[in-house]
Structures are given as structure tokens and as C-alpha cells.
Amino acid sequence: MKDNNAGTTPASFRVIVPTRGEDVVRLDGTRLTVDEVVMVARHGAQVVYSPEAIDRAHEKERLLLAAVGQGRPVYWVTRGTGKDRKITTYSGDPFSEEGRRELEDIQLRTFRGESPSLAVRARGPEIGDEETVRAVLVVAANTLVRRGASAPLLDAVVALLNHRVAPVLLGRGSPGQGDLPQMSMVAQTLVGEGTAYHQGRRMPAREALREAGLPELVPFGIDSGALIASNAFSDGQAALLVADAETMLNWADLVHVLSKLALNDSVTPLLPQLQSEERDKHQAWLARRVAALTRGSHLWEYDAERTLQGPLSFRDYFVLGGVAWKAWDRLRQEVERCINTPGQNPALLPNLRPQDSWALDTGWLRQFLVQDDEVSGYVVASAGFERRGLDQEVGAFANALAWVCAGAVQRPLRLQDPFVNALANPETVPHGSLASRAQEGDYAAADLYASLLADLAPLPPMTIPLIRGIEDLSPHTHAMVRRVRNAVDTARDLVAEEAGAALAWLEVRRGHRPDMKLGPVASALLDACAEDVVLDGSYPDRPAPAVSFRAWMATVDPRAFMGPDVQARPDLLG
To answer: Residues 237, 238, 242, 245: what is their CA dihedral angle, to the nearest 10 degrees?
Structure first.
């Protein structure tokens, strides 16, 4: 079918800027981090396999082929998939020339989407950014070394990354336990079918491969199962969620400090002596962080006008934020577990023998035993592809994020309340001033919060029996990750609204006390955005063009303002 958009880049497809194209991430199937996924996906780092990864991949593939050659029942190779799991699909010898050609033909038809056992199709909308596709590819590449993939398949997926060939992926259609529809689109690209982008230009996949100087893959063994029956579509996006959530939480911490300064709020709840006795370690960590971010400011000086305690949205920020950082910490660890877990069906278990456990020595398990002069082990059906733990941690972070954002909505309202701020009544604030314009943001904040809550609403368990009841429980992993990624973007916008209010009321307070100390962190933040950010369009002396605080936030790493005394991330789970 002709692609009318071939050779063009839709306005909605956002390409990466390969600022780290000279860097190299080494994959071994066990130690890939979220930071490395971001380096590759977002900044264009190159990818290579370690020698250990190549050895591991060869061992797994050799076990798989031995099982097939010995006539063992192997899901996805000698048996069909899903409802066809009882049907024999291959009974040849993969080590013979005829048997190899037959297996290559079966695998090629599956890669092209012609297998009757794998009639799955993704649905729109199209994934609109290159970084998401690249995140999917790097996670797939990392797990392939533990999934029995052939050496040509390993090379082919890495080549897509290193030559910036991005398969066109559609965002819906996955049940969440094996992203088969989306990963089938990756498979099609590798054999020259479908549509892809090459360095941001849309074209038929065969043309993209030819432009990049890449051959069309000839798949073998269990290549289709190794690539297609993968959770990389969900897991890759979850890695980007972790990265973006960290940035958002860092901004939330900084902007909270601005609000705290604007209110002239008490710092006594931040005392480390309180934290050591009363709080969990993530809350204590955030209390120390906020204390460090406000150090050197007027908040630590005696002030007869300061109340003993402010509203809970100020006073308990380190509690709500600490819970969110803890949920983020747990989510990060779970994502890094997932992106380094093969999660394959069938599972390939080399170097095991019946004497290694009573279960392996039973009649049922012995039918899956593989033994020859080069390799021994088991090839067994498995449920390791399930992502219930990831679902749980995404949901927990979503709940914690909602509470952080509830505080971001409340603090601007408290700042304009004379009962709380001990400043002029809002009715007396001159029309057109920063403070009066900050009050106009109330509607925007309310709308953003409503949108955020819609994305963060929990999803009930899915119990639709799929594939004639074989898949009767399905997680919503990719849908949950997509929604929470949207929520993180909305949360960033909400924090920007709080920043506008905090800076406006901070200006009012400094008008009352020109000698008020902000401390080095807040001063650096204000200095950095002073020339570029406009909070109020009425400045006659502000040179154009100026951007909103929200737009400015998207270009700046919040950690740049935190200094060496502020720990970059909690990493407290151990």
C-alpha cells in the first residue's frame, strides 16, 4: 500500500537532536539504566554489545536450536502461538540446510505479518516522536541477548538505532503482556516492509534501510518470538516516564522553595532532629534538601512577623514530596528490573540438569530437557512477560503525584490570602501588577489539575478473555504509562503556574522588605530567568522575545541550581 506521506516529516513527528552522538552505551542484557535509555533515545548515543552479551546470546540461541533439533515442544517455533499452541508448525532439523531454509521462511513470513497464528494489528494514533521509538528499540536490543535471538537480529536492531531508522509505530492495540502489535511493526521494518523514518524523513521501510546502508534481515530460529513477544514498547516508555518524572519533581522542589520564600514560611518542620525521630528516610531526605535550598535566606533569620506555622500545603511539602520521591525511587528500580529482564515465553534456561532440583527431575519437566555435546538446559513455557509489578509502581507514583500537584494548586491561593501572607489585601494590589496577574492564573491551575486527575484515575483490572480465553487477564501497562506520562507533562505546567504566582508575590514581599535575603539557590534561579522569562506581558522595558516560565523550564535542567550540597536524587531503597 502506498504511503502518501513518504519522504515527508509530519508536523507532529518530533525528531531528536543527537547531542550525544559520539557517546556509546554498551549493552549486556543485565545492567541497562534509565539514564542510558535516555542517552540513546533522547540524545542519540550509539549502542554496542559487550563481548559478554554476544556470548550470552549465542548460548541461548544454541540451546533453543538444540531443543528444536531434538524435537522438543517449543512454543513459537515447533508449536504455534496463542490458540494454535497445540499445532505443530515445524518439525525439521535447524542444523541442516533444508531445515534452516524452512525455518527462515517461517520466520520471514511472521516478520512480514503473514503468520496465521499471529494475526495482530496495531491501531492509531501514530507515535509522534523519535525518542519514544528509540526508547523501545534500545530496550528491545538489551533484552534480545537473553531471548535466543540470532546474531543478525542483534546487529539489525542496533543498526536501526545507530543509523537513526525509526519504524512507524501505532500506539494502541497491545493487551499489555507482550506488546505484539507494536513490536510486529518493528519486525516489518527490519525486513523492508511498512514505513519508517530515516533521520527524521518518512519513507517506505525498504528505502529507509537502503538509504542507511543496511541489509534486510533474514530472520532465523526464534527471532520473531524474541523480538515481537516483547514488552519493550511499554518498558521503553516507562523509562522515559521515570526520567521526565525526576525532572518534574526537581522543579517542584525548587518552585516550592520560591513559594516558601514568598510566604515567609516557617522552617522549623525541616529540622533534621525532627526527621530522625518522626519520618521515613525519603521524607527526611527531602526535608534536608529543602533546608539546603533555603539556606542563607531570610527564612532562617528571626522575624517577628512570621507565624509559627503556615498552611499544610507549605508545611507538609516534604511529606507529600517525600512520598512522591519514594514512589519515584521504587518505580525507577522496577523499570530498571524490567528493561534487564528477558520476560520471554518460552524461557531459555541453559546449564541446568535434572539433578539440580526435584522439579527438574519430574516427568513433566524432562520433556523439555535439552542435552547434547555443546549445551544442556531446559526450554519451557513461561509467564515471565507479566508486568504486574510495573503496573503497581506506576499506579503508586500516580497517586503520589496527585498529592504533590494538589499542593501546587493550593499554594498560589494561600499566597494571595491576607490571613496567610500577612501582606496587603489582594483587593488593594494594583491592577496590572505581577501579583494581580498571578491571581488570573487560578482558572488555568484549576483546569490543569482537573486534566491531571483524569489522567491519574486508576484503571481497574482487565478481565476480557482474549485469544479464546488463553489470555483472560491483561494488564494496562502501556495505557497506564501513557496516561501518567501525560500527567507528568501537565504537572510541569501546573508547577510553572505556581512559579508565576510565587515570583509575583515574592516581588510584592521584596517591595516591603528590599533587603530581604533569598539565599544563593533562589537568587541564582531568579538571575538565570531574569533576562528571558516574562511573567507579565505589560513590561515596557523587557526586550523581546521573552518566553513564559513554562517554556523556559523545558530548556533548563533544574539540578543546575541545586549546588553540591543538595543530593541529586534519593537512591534510598538499597
So the answer is: 70
SS3 state of residue 377 = strand
Question: What's the CATH number for 24-230?
Answer: 1.10.275.10
Q: Is the dihedral of CA 424, 428, 433, 435 positive or negative?
A: positive
pLDDT tier at 540, thresholds 50, 70, 90: very low
Q: Among 333-342, 374-383, 404-413, which stretch is predicted with the lowest mean pLDDT?
A: 374-383
Segment 162-208, tens digit of pLDDT: 999 999 999 887 776 678 889 999 999 999 999 999 999 999 999 99
Three cell numbers, residue 256: 516550592
Are 225 and 77 contacting, i.e. CB atoms less than 8 angstroms apart? Answer: yes
Domain spans in the chain, listed from the N-terminal domain onward: 24-230, 239-336+387-515, 347-380
Helices H, strands E: what count in the chain?
21, 10
Count CB neighbours of 296 within 10 A: 16
Q: How far separated are the first and last CA of the chain, in Å rounded?
A: 52
Helix (H) or strand (E) holding 370: strand 369-371
CA 271, CA 288: separation in Å to the nearest integer?
Answer: 8
* 355: pLDDT strictly greater than 90: yes
**Beta pairing partners, 48:** 26
CA distances 323 to 47, 158, 326, 398, 404, Å, are 35, 38, 5, 11, 9
Grid cell in block for residue 379: 526450554
Q: Which helix (H) or strand (E) holds 159?
A: helix 151-162
What SS3 class is residue 312?
A: helix
| Residues in contact with 282: Cβ distance below 8 Å, sequence separation at least 6, in sequence order | 322, 323, 325, 326, 329, 570, 572
Q: How many Å apart are CA 278 and CA 284, to the nearest integer? A: 9
Question: Cα angle vertex 327, ends 325, 330, to 5°?
Answer: 110
The pLDDT, as a whole number, for residue 572 is 64
What Å distances lie between residue 545 and 481, 528, 533, 549, CA to CA? 36, 16, 9, 13
* CATH, domain 239-336+387-515, list 1.20.200.10, 1.10.287.3240, 3.40.50.920, 3.30.420.40: 1.20.200.10
Q: What is the pTM assigned to this prediction?
A: 0.91
